[in-house]
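A common beginner's mistake is to predict each chain separately and then try to dock the pieces by hand. The better habit, illustrated here, is to supply every component at once so that their relative placement is modeled jointly.
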Amino acid sequence: MDRHIVHISVPSFPIQMEVRRLPRLKGWPLAVVPNMGKRAIIQAVSLEALRSGIRKGMLLSVAQKLCRDLEVLPYDERYYRSGSEEVFAVACKMSPIAEPVNLGKVFADLSFAARDARRLVDICWRTVNDLHNSIGISPALGLASNKLVSMIAARLASENDLCQVAGGDEKKFLQPLSAHHLPVVDRKVWRRLWLMGLRLIGSIACFEAADLALLFGRSGVRLHEQANGIDFTPVLPAKKSSGRVFGEILVPDTNDVEVIRARVCRLAESAGMELRANRLQALRLSLAIEYADARQAEHSHKLSRRSSADADLKDSAVKLLAATLRRRVSVRVITLGVPEVVPAAVQLDLFPQPLAEKHQRIEKAIEVIRGRFGVEAIGYAPLRQSAVRLSI
Amino acid sequence: MFRHLSVRSFYSFGCGTASVERLCARAKALGCTEIALTDVNGLYAIGWFFKACEDNGLTPIVGVEVRHPSGPCRAVLLPFTRQGYSHLCHIISARHLEENFSLAEAITRWREGLVIISDTFALLAAIAGRGGRANLYVELRPGRSRSEAMAFSRTSGIPPIVTNDVHFLERDDYALHLKLRAIHLKKTVKTLEGDHVASPEAWLKSAKQMQEEFASYPEALANTERVAAICASFRLEFSRPIFPQFTGADGRSADEVLRDIATTTAQRKYCGSPAVMERLEKELEIITRKGFAHTFLVMRDIVKKSEHTCGRGSAAASLVSHVLEITDVDPISCDLYFGRFLNDARTDPPDIDMDFCRDERRPIIDAVFTQYGEANAAMVANHNCMGMRQAIRRLAELEGLPQSEIALVTRLFSGWGGNIADFCATHPRFRGVKLSDKWPMILKDAEQLVGIPSHLSLHPGGVVIAPDGIDNYIPRQRSKNGLIAIQTEKDQTEDFLKFVKFDILGNTSLCVLRDCLCAIEKDCGVRLQYRDWRRSAADAKTRALIATARTMGCFHIESASFLQLLEKIGPGLKSAGPQKVFDVLVILSSIIRPASNDNIKEFLRRFFGGPFTYLHPKLEPILAETLGLPVYQEHVNLMAMALAGFSEVEADQLRKALTAKKSEKLIRTLIQKYVAGCRHNGVPEEVAQTTARQILQFVHYSFLKAHSASYVILALACTYLKAHYPALFMAARLSHPGGFWSFRAYLSECTRLGLRVLMPDVNNSRVECTGRDDWVRIGLMAIKGVRQQTKNKIVAEREKNGRFVSFADFLRRVPVEDDEMEQLIMAGLFDRIEPQLHQGAMHYLYSHWVGLGKPAPMDWYSEQRQRACRACQPYGEKEKLHNEIEVFGTLVSRHPLAQCQATLSRLRRVMAKDLHRHAGKMVTLAGWPITSKEVTTRQEEPMEFWAFEDESGVFHAVLFPRAYQKFCRLLVGERPLLISGMVQQEYGAVTLNVVNISKFPELANQGKQEAVA
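With all components supplied together, the output reads:
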């Protein structure tokens, strides 16, 4: 049976969500940044801002000088996530098989309507209207026989539009496009393609898979498939991730190890609270650091025993920090991940563990206080000190 | 009374915070009579320390804290005999030079004459075990357990001693100490560990404070006094110059050999002229009396090691130097003043500066080291101190700021001088710049770091030789490039240690000259002598180049300001004789110096026949050649002797005070003495004051005639070669970066000379650039990202096994790295052997070949070649330009303004070559910035001189303060600009007085982003 995959993509999703929240912003040059410091990096820009020369990834301070009227909005991940869930809900109405990819981006498998081409298009247009009328955002849709082509088609479609690629026309559709549209083409591959004068997908498609494998190693085979519009990956229904991620943006950036250590411990406490609330235990921790110059470092390690206790998590997180923090450049973002969790063990201890019980009681008491008076209301002594330092 | 026996200055790199001058002044204020300086692992500041002690009436105690390369083992070593000092130097040299250095073994070996103080118990026990407890002390210092030290002292029987382990001057300087340590160890202040830093109490306390603090240890205090007394009684002195002994083959003395060679050569050269022989005799007498015959003969030996040299500096005024062929200038015909080089009162050894081809310098230094022995020769060091930009950079790194942000701010500080807060508040570059929160503190702290030594480097050419071993005088250590250097810089080396320094300097223009002469001999069969300046100056073509200011590429007379001056004076040189051309060039190369605009204008006026009178009749014979204006350093000596009645010695003192930038106080005193002398000799007050002002202008910067004359000989040789062999000369010039102008500017000069610039080619390019007839071919050297070894390999393979016939042939014969191959293809190296194959296809073929595992038989080649040509797209014009910039760092096939063809075709602009036709008019030019010089006006306002270039030539522009304020931020980085202004003409030279600068519309957006950034 022929496959029909639609890709729903909301261009500049954070910007569209902000305009939806505050319609007066429509038509203004807008930029969304994760934090409001001068060295913040722009995450999304509106069309008007693009016209002023502002680009995604640019420093906010530079952007503000390029466009004095630029409206800067903070990155509100929770709000965007809820919006993305709304988009996903609409996609689920189209098809029982829908796969969320990223914020405002969803694949849906419409193969069930394969026999009626007109119905397919109707479904897509209805979805466009639904999203536009009920949620207030303007998506771009791509309809093709596989995920790859539908994604590229959606990228080429304008807002509230559908770009359809008929089955069998994939190669023809891709031929005149620049090679950087292919997901396999990262910076390194693009440089080599550029040097060889293989800038269009069509030029790449001329080569045999074996030739491309010679030129690009493992990527070569994927490059051959993608250049020929071949993608057999199925649309996978949403699967709830079991892992947890806790992040914090440091304002201002700092290279003060005490402050960074305190923040990592705070994240470990948050992780502990959430794990305990969900009766889960961590098997592994990961710590990612983004420096002020955008370089990143990441380490992870397996806990010596599954745990959700603050002391264990903090101890591991601090060890991870020592392994990860190797430069003097200030740190901007810390992300503590708990990639592997398991349900909390219900096995009771054979012998009394007075110290562990004492810690548990303290943790519970802290949770109660935080529940009533907020997270900042109470903390471990070193954290309080660091908080004071930060406020200075 | 307590004496400080363990004190570090900021010459303990990254440890101490105070200069030796401040330490000594503070010690005097605290009532000390003696003070030790024990810098870490070195005697870097020994000369400054003795001088500071002398200025403050203190008795110096020499010492060093030797730290083991690994681990916390340390000891303070204080010599109390001359032998002890020599041993100390041996220990430090061993610490720096020996791979498996052991502090205990070194101290045991060279223990005689040294007091050893340490709180490393294992070290003390080891030393005591091997050589007894004499002069061995257990150190009680802040931050360490005193009870443990005392317990060890009691059990081992080694007496205790008190030090304060001084690292900084005041208690408050501790923060600065921490920052220095963090910078030095590349950590943050918070991540410094206990062993990394001194105790917060390690500051220079008074004797009373120390006695109160250590009142419980009277024995230790008494030991401190006793050791201080022993060490202070040792007076270290270097009274005699240190230089190698020349040993003649026949056992004659150096004086005899020198006299013999000099007299024989002079008689041959000057046909026994009595005047010449009299001068030679006078010079030889002084040289013999001073005992410097060895120095001259050794220098002659060194000079003989190379065919292409240029003796310069004051030595060029010596007839002995000339007849020994150390220098080229004839001091008789040039009337050079010998007293500037050597006179009876001069106690410091003569300074002979020799230029060698830059690429021959290292082999010559190696040969000197081999000849005199590794232990007897060493380079002179340079103490690199932190400037404002470095200080800002280091502190900003400490605060964790990213490099991009640091670069944005430090770039604004180019040309900084004076108070940093004033600079930020007043300089136009800071207008509208908002610095983030961390910056005010960084900038404030940076002022404290400015002037603190950061690391040791090498003097450009200074070599010292001690016949009995350098380690008897000063420690040595290895530099990054492997050469061994002493720990002091040139002033301490010459003035305090009394080493005779041989300057073996590198000169790029000598390489240009050498390569060009070789190419002429090879291609044209002509062997030229570059030292024959009369032939060059008499040559019409050479004179024409000089008179029309087309000397770009010619050593010493190619700078932007020199070209402008030549434009002005050129008409007067067209019909001049060789001697006049030579003399004028010598004057011009000396008269161009900072703050001498008025002097230059006045000289030009007089040169073109303007009337003038000498300020005093006695000045006429002195200043006749420079039309009544003092130009050379020698003029200071001669004027002081003629008008103020100074003796030769006093006059030279005045000259030295001015040119060596001695203290303002000394200069003022000598000038007052000069004015008083003039009055005494009946010189009118006005003349005395005017000449005193003229003399004071030499404070900034000045040349001596002998030095200028030496360089003008080279300059004339270069100009002669440029006039007669332009392709060969420009090829040699392009091959040796380091001239005044950029590679790009020299390429434009090639075009202006009518030469075709050919791109690199695998079968025709050599590593260096080559030229012939009407073309210059860019060499492989210009291709970035390719190792020198690979470039040599390509040429060697071609010369050995013949020309490459195809791209595949090259792949088979020359192994290169992948990234190098990318660059070679983009440089167009194979475009001629594979005209059917575009560069994209070549990249494909290479990658395919690599993918196949680089097989030797190339069966696949023809098949894949067809496919590559079909599938790969050839590069567009823009992509080619992009590649060129990536490979060569600039556009080489065409002028950079070609990028803006769209605007240029619409624009009504004046070309640089036609600028003189628009004198007095407002015009607009398109220009590519090539060089600039920022200066300040008398009102201390910044302004800037710029040289821009378009397709037709170079034009000079000046941004007066108002224009500078408006446009200085546009003139950052290389980009084409539209420059409007009023054309001003002076003596035929045209300058653009800038009123507006704008960017090209094509690059407006890019420029906007850069400017904002």
